[in-house]
Amino acid sequence: xxxxTPFIVGNWKLNPLTQKAAAELAAGVxxxxxxxxxxxxxxxxxAVHMSEVSKKIKNSTVMLAxxxxxxxxxxxxxxxxxxxxxxxxxxxxxxxxxxxxxxxGVTDEDVNRKVAKILRTNLVPIVCIGERxxxxxxxxxxxxxxxxxxxxxxxxxxxMKKIVIAYEPIWAIGTGKTATAxxxxxxxxxxxxxxxxxxxRPTARSVxxxxxxxxxxxxxxxxxxxxxxxxxxxxxxxxxxEDFIAIAxxxx
Length: 252
Ligand code: PEP
Known about the structure:
By secondary structure, the protein is an alpha/beta fold. It has helices at about 20-30, 50-55, 85-90, 100, 110-120, 140-155, 155-160, 180-200, 200-205, 215-225, 240-250, and strands spanning about 5-10, 40-45, 65, 90-95, 125-130, 165, 210, 230-235.
């Protein structure tokens, strides 16, 4: 995937209710995203809908992502999905450390274990980072830096280049409070500078960065043009095919 081509990922979370609705939504995205059209697009349905969604996007350029995976490859782990299982269903990307999962107890250490597992399976982890709130002293930068340091502890430069980092300030997720394009730009430069310190400049510049947090059709163009990231992770607005595709087109 060329980093210069934006990447838009739709995280459907625990939606929609029925398999039929999931199939319709997937078909709607696939129909609107014509074969040769940039940007890259992936959708992350809930695990129970993956198989149906996979059938609907099979003949399109829309790719499949998983919302999470287990630490385990199989065995007595009720209620989990393994990386092998989601790969078998056609998933190429796996979201790791989404704030909603971190709120449920997922730690930086868990994120690292999952990232290692995903890379071993040759899939791409989309690692979510981001502060809970902003403060005037800028302590949120330290928080983001710590998350990056923790991630970098186990990753060689070659591995770091393979992952996608989604900067998702928690205060902006599902709240309608979007970071401004200036905030996003500042964070893009900050993340690159931290990665430069931890690795080197070529590595920092080759990691794909996404922004996520209340991205909608009306703000996508400015966030993309001035925010300096390489795409979006979209929650709520990915549940309407028209809105999701409008966001994707805003990055063209
Ligand atoms: C998300 O869940 O990753 C997200 C960014 O959600 P929303 O777009 O609804 O803020």
